Amino acid sequence: MINSQLRAYDLTAKFFHTFRSVKYKHVPVVRAMAYPFHLDAVKSFKSSKRTGQRWIRKPRQLYDKLVANDVVITVPYNPSQLGKSKTIFSSKVIEGLGINIKQNIICIEKKNSRRLKAPYYNPEASGRLLAAHYNMLLSQIKSIVRKKGVHPYFKRKVFMKWIKSQLRSVMRKIDGIEQLFSKNNIKAVIQSSSVNPMGYLLVHMGKQRRVPTMNIQYGLLDTYQILSTNVDHYVAWGDQHRKRLTRYGTPQHKFHILGNARFDPLFNGKWMNKSQLSRRMGIKGNKTIFVYPEQPLKMRYNRIVMQRVIRALLPFRKKVALLVKKHPRQKGSGLSSGMMRKYPFAKLIHKRSIRLYDMLSGADTVFVQFSTTGLEAMLIRKPVIALSFFPNTNKHEYSYYASSKLLTSAKGQKQLRTIVSKFLKDSSFRRLMLNKQEKYLLGAYSGSGNARKKINELMVTI
Fold first, then answer.
1. Which residues, including other chains, have CB under 8 Å from residue 190's CB and lie 6 or more apart?
2. Amino acid 111: pLDDT
3. Tally: H helices and E strands in the chain
4. Which residue in 91, 123, 238, 271 could disulfide with 176, CB within 3.0 to 4.6 Å?
5. Which superfamily does CATH assign the domain made up of 268-444 to?
């Protein structure tokens, strides 16, 4: 964990402690702001000096200082009087589980969205903001900030401006979630993460009513996912992810190593082979196909990655084809039309022109930064080359693929070119890559095409 990130967690712990008395409907409001607060704190601590008492000195303390000390106040709740029981799901977590959404509730966090029709529910859009309650909490926050000994970070004008906006949003969500519980017989809260404000509030307010809570890992875990371990049950892909979070102090008993239903089709589906992909993409000759699924980063980062990938492949341009697929949340690609004209071996694949799993299945190898796509490629036995071009940043890449000695990774253009050269020329190098990946997968993923069944069985028991 890089120093600025650990210091940001230390400040997040101070944030929780300093404003612990600020509550709305018995909910500590600032804990719902943890994720956006932490991201701003990371930026601040890249250049600032450390001041005041340290709450977190080492990663092992993260769970105790950020999660375990969250006090839950029980509130009255009589669900049996509210009709047929339902489970609250987040929108991502239902992927692949075969959930009957009409018999449950799907919560969606969209700040500017209007109220949704059942079974979908937007807590913030449905919640009310009472001016008297808002002003009272804001006055309480201002009173705390004026006290001596309060960390200077909280005395900044920019902090007060930030927390005013956050407070309005969180209070609306709390009111919306309270309405949701008051009108429904909720038997469980199941999400993909409780890092975001809605996720935290659903877990905390569920616990207030003694409703079981569960998170099912959806993507790669960055360090801030420690905030998602406030649930009763945590479903992880593999032992590697459990070990990562227990190193931060999370109790072992919370974890269930079951995989994720979204990956079951990889084992059970039928996907394109190389010949089929070549015909579909108009790739002539027996060229080595490299696939690169982009990440939803800032454009300047995507451009840097794309330029380095292109330059690494350039000496072998007559022997290779590069297929670049935009991320669903990406507006533009790092591969411009001008670059495609200049380097015809590179092609941009638009969202719906071909399925991602067909591309992975038909590829010879896959470039990946910190995307779940890297794991998906490994699960169908495709060699993966990790790109780790941005050191000392708060990105997944330095804590996942590139940090493992079992995976092939490049930290620059020259190293990537060397790897590509070996991959093209040396069959023993390719075999070694795959053999190491197999060892990596033993810890990274424990599902085998039946994660849906196992997770559904667990949900019945909680």
1. 87, 88, 89, 90, 93, 213, 214, 215, 216, 459
2. 60
3. 17, 15
4. 123
5. Glycogen Phosphorylase B; (3.40.50.2000)
